[in-house]
Amino acid sequence: MGHQLLTWAADKHGVDAQCRLSEILFLTYLERCGNLGDRDTLLAAVKEAELPEEEAKEVLLSGAYEDRVVEEVHAHAKKYRISGVPFFIMSKPGSDREVCLSGAQEAEEIVKVLRDLLPAPSESKSKSEGAGAGAGAADGAATAAAGSDS
Fold it and tell me: Cβ contacts of residue 46 below 8 Å, gap of 6+?
C-alpha cells in the first residue's frame, strides 16, 4: 500500500511530494515503529507530507496503482536479478552508472559505495552553488528497492 501511495504522490503531485512522503514513511517505520500495512498509519503520513488525504484514501480503497506497482517491482526484479531484500541500487547523480548491493550489508560497505559515487563535499558545494541547489547527498543518490509489497 505504501508503494501505491508513493507512485500516486509522484504522478499527481510531483517528485518533491513523493520524496516528502517517502521520508515520512521511513521515519514512521524505522523511528516511530509504525505499521505501514495499516491504512490509518499511511493516511497520517500522507497528512504529515501535506498531501490530500481524501485522494490518498481513494487510491488505497480503489487499488488504482496496485497493478502498476506490482509490474514495476517485477520489472526491477528481472532487470537487476533481485531475489531477496534488502536490495540497494545506488547511482551517481547525472550518471548512468549504478551499483547494486544485495542482502544485508555492513554500514561501512554502503558508505564506501556512496563515497565512490558522490562528489567530494567541496565539489558538491561548488556545483550546487552554481546551480542554486544545495540539496546534498540525498538527491537521488541512493534508492532502495525494498521488495514487492504493494
Answer: 5, 21, 52, 53, 56
Residue 117 lies in a domain: yes
Residue pair 46/36 in contact (Cβ under 8 Å)? The answer is no
Total tally of structural domains belonging to the chain: 2
Torsion of CA 117, 121, 127, 131, to 10 degrees: 100
| 6 neighbors 18 (Cβ within 8 angstroms) | yes
Nearest to 88 by CA among 140, 146, 141: 146
Question: Which grid cell sits at 27?
Answer: 521515519
* Residue-number span of the structural domain to which 12 is assigned: 2-64
> Residue 70 falls within a domain, yes or no?
no
| pLDDT, tens digit (0-9, with 9 covering 90-100), for 43-92 | 999 999 999 999 999 999 999 999 999 999 999 999 999 988 899 999 88
- For 115-129, what is each residue's pLDDT tens digit? 888 877 775 555 545
36, 64, 92: which is the final residue of a domain?
64
